[in-house]
Write a structure and sequence with these properties.
9 helices; mainly alpha; about 200 residues
Length: about 200
């Protein structure tokens, strides 16, 4: 008798599950379809990003390999275009190549490209701070004290690993301008930071 009740209960449970699937067939198909579309979209986006990254890498490498001083305008245009792609890897590399080879003489244009990297490119915070530091380093020969401090302000007001480098750069700036008292104060603050950490 108990076995018959168990069999009937099992059959009833199976029938309920079957009926539930039949009633909700449309919802199950829609849910499964949505999940499938999301997974496929994610995989396609990932594949497209990888292709774009490879395309940018190839573009950067070809530009660098084909670089000749007599055709520097082509290199400048291609590397500027690469910087404006706002890629976390190849945009900074393109800017550094332009600076290292003195391809752009206009300081305002270089600063505009630095700003493009700093403000528009999705970068790790410390990489962004490194680029800010490099911008300050680039500007340290011809900028005023206020301009240099304004550039370095985001780093100095943070706990970045580039903070001590920024303070040292400011101290060296003051030393080069023969402002020994400011130089001493900055170096003293720099020294205190080094002993605390």
């Amino acid at each position: 008798m108990d076995e018959e009740i168990t069999i009937i209960d099992s059959n009833t449970r199976n029938e309920r599950i079957k009926n539930s699937f039949i009633k909700n067939k449309k919802n199950i198909i829609i849910t499964f379809s949505v999940i499938l579309i999301i997974v496929i979209s994610y995989l396609l986006m990932k594949e497209m990003k990888e292709r774009d990254k490879i395309k940018l890498a190839n573009q950067f490498n070809i530009t660098i390999i084909n670089f000749k001083l007599e055709n520097k305008q082509i290199t400048i245009e291609q590397l500027t275009k690469l910087i404006n792609e706002n890629d976390a890897t190849y945009s900074p590399l393109a800017l550094y190549f332009l600076i290292d080879n003195n391809l752009i003489n206009d300081k305002n244009e270089i600063n505009r490209l630095f700003d493009e990297l700093i403000n528009e490119t999705s970068l790790d915070e410390e990489i962004k701070n490194l680029i800010i530091y490099k911008k300050a380093l680039f500007n340290s020969d011809f900028s005023s004290e206020n301009d240099l401090l304004q550039i370095l302000k985001p780093i100095i007001n943070s706990e970045s690993i580039w903070k001590s480098h920024s303070l040292y750069l400011i101290a060296e700036y003051f030393y080069s301008k023969n402002q020994k008292q400011k130089n001493f104060l900055i170096k003293y603050y720099y020294y205190l930071m080094q002993t605390i950490t």
